[in-house]
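We modelled the chain as a single entity of 194 amino acids. Its sequence is:
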Amino acid sequence: MAAHTPGERIAEIRKTYSISREVLAERSGVSAALISKIEDDGLIPDLAPLIKIARGLGVRLGTLLDDHEQLGPVICRAGKNASASRFKTGLPQGADTSTGHHGMTFNALASDKNGRHMEPFIVIIQSDAQQEKSAHEGEEFIFVIEGTLSLEYGTDKEILNTGDSVYYDSIVPHRITSADSNPLKILAVIYTPV
């Protein structure tokens, strides 16, 4: 695939399989308007819509995020994961990143692994990051590297500190934010079934 952004990949896959935006919206449960913004405007939504779109297209989430793939093990050396930054999300409405709004930055740890079903990321969540609760197929494991994490899971709310971890079913509506005014750094591994 020559396309590089998730929106370009979605458009390319739709074209390859002759799937209209409306059909993809019906299959994925993601509105055609949001699909249009992702494809045409380069909008990067939270992971939940991308996972649903991938399922609607019949591809892995990684297919929308990959640049190229490797069959053997993928090693990500210390200090190198920042160069594998895949996308930013959770920015306040109309935010200008030059003014200090940074939202959530997802740094892929295995973006080159062929046929993977897990998506491991180092995620930096700024205190100004905004996101809606999301729900999607699969499971998530989160380990707090630095900071204090606030997890909303269904109607429950939990606080996790540095060194704490959580494993949960992603089908339950959930949201992760920084619990205070400091940035949060986590290891997030997202598993989505084929």
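As a brief sanity check on the tokenised model: The beta strands are 85-89, 104-108, 118-125, 139-146, 149-153, 156-160, 165-169, 174-178, 184-191. The chain has a mean pLDDT of 82.
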